[in-house]
Amino acid sequence: MKRQVWFFAAVLAAGFLVTSAELRTVFGGPAEAEVTLKGEVVDLHCYITRHGGEGRGPQHAGCANACLSRGVTAGFVASDGKLYLLFDEKPFPVKEKIAGLAGQQVTLTGTIAERDGVRGILLKSVEPAK
Question: I need a surface site. Which of 25, 67, 104, 129 has the fewest CB within 10 A?
Answer without folding.
Answer: 25
